[in-house]
Amino acid sequence: MELPPATPHDACPPEVCVDFDGVAGCIAEAREAAVAFLRLHVPHARTTFRDDVLLVISELVTNAVRHAPGPLTLKLGLLPGGIGITVRDTSPSPPHSRTPDRTGGRGWPIVQSLARRVRVVPGPNGKTVHVELAW
Predict the structure, then answer these.
(1) CATH homologous superfamily for 22-95+105-134?
(2) Where is this region: Disordered (predicted)?
């Protein structure tokens, strides 16, 4: 997958923003975008960090596909000491934990356990979930 160019100004940390149609196939596309971003901007990141980033993206995008009809946006950006992951979708409902069963319920607790910081911001047409992961 080809990514849009990173922010060209040297004073700004690299970031990428990718829009998806919100169907199940976009989960793999979001992971591909993350792999490309990490290879380009964090080539020496340890494998466990890359795996954590991909897991968080998979969970956030999967939740958006399941619970928010319509398009979604994934944004990745470098932060001091880590990476920021943002997913914007069309559902006004915030993510929440539920009792795990055969169909799910494990994702949001996993995201919270891996994150340095999690923030959910409601908007007029949905919500934005911000997650920060430390190196």
Answers:
(1) Histidine kinase-like ATPase, C-terminal domain (3.30.565.10)
(2) 86-108
